[in-house]
Amino acid sequence: MRLSCIVIALTLSTHLFGAVIDTTDMTREENYHQEHGSKFLHKIYELVKTFSVVDTDYVEPQHYNYTFMLQNTNSYELYQLRNETGGKIVFAPEPAYKLGPYFGWRWIFLGYTIDLAHLNDNNGRLDFNLSLYSNQIGIDLFYRKSGNSYRINSITFEKPYDTSAMSGTRFDGFRTSVKGFNIYYIFNHQKFSYPAAYSQSTVQRRSCGSLIAGIGYTKHKLNIDWLKLDDMIKHRLGDAYSSEIIDTTIVTSKVDYTDYSVSTGYAYNWVFAHNWLLDVSLQLGLAYKHSNKGTRTAAAEYHKDFHFRNFNLDGITRLGLVWNNTKWFAGANAIFHTYNYRKSKFSTNNTFGNVNIYVGFNFGKR
Prior knowledge:
Layout: H1 2-50, E1 59-60, E2 64-83, E3 88-93, E4 96-105, E5 108-111, E6 114-115, E7 126-133, E8 137-145, E9 150-156, E10 169-170, E11 174-186, H2 194-198, E12 203-204, E13 208-224, H3 226-236, H4 239-245, E14 254-273, E15 276-291, E16 310-324, E17 328-341, E18 346-365
Antiparallel strand pairs: 1-12, 2-3, 2-4, 2-18, 3-9, 4-5, 4-6, 7-8, 8-11, 9-10, 11-13, 13-14, 14-15, 15-16, 16-17, 17-18
């Protein structure tokens, strides 16, 4: 009995001792990983901090941790389609007028807006825009889906016909979507501040400009029911008019293409009075457009001639006017993207963007 107890005691002590050794090894391993993980996170933190380093003779840094803002966002879009004979159709959805609150903590800024113009509409329209501004790097993310909200803005023929009966007509046979991103680098980022103009997190104290360079990616989808448009033109203008612009042997019904671009441009912050700032920015991009598989056309033989594998110029325009005394701020800005495709028989031009009007204040001193 006594021997059995000793054996049991030795057995338990061996297991316990082994457990202590294993725990010690695990603790050392955890400490090793924690130490190296902390160093890695510290390096990331130091790298992120460099994005906000400024020359305080030109830019006054943010003094607060939190921001509250009320913003009105107005969204616009325009599509132009042309054929080889000079016929042109311009589509535009009804503008969206949104209003909502935003709350920010340093770099993170979240909000929600309600489309006041389409509270009860179920048109399938989606509009997502996110812009991230640091002094050194900027990012634009966007996704737009038109739904069935397009109207015919105008129709132009080669001959000077009266087409006013078509203007403003709702047309649910035209649907589009655009999604993508732009990433750009601000070279003179210590003296020039994009956040001063577009996120109100700093204040530009002396006028300054900077060169900008970036890359972009967008995916475009366009679908138009030409037969429905043909019927509408015949109904409103007469049979003779539709043949001037509708030729189902050469136009596509569905286009799906991807746009890769490299851009460069210049931005300038003009401090025209104390606490006031006007920013003007323009980027031009050389874009390569690649037609995706599955693009369907009205006539198979035209598919051979209709390719988006060519280069065109795209553009991004920004305008910003802001008053900011570091505590309170108010202003307006506009950001518009333009995409072009040109070929002998068919061309498109798409412009979309937002105009924002806002007022807010900062709180929670650092």
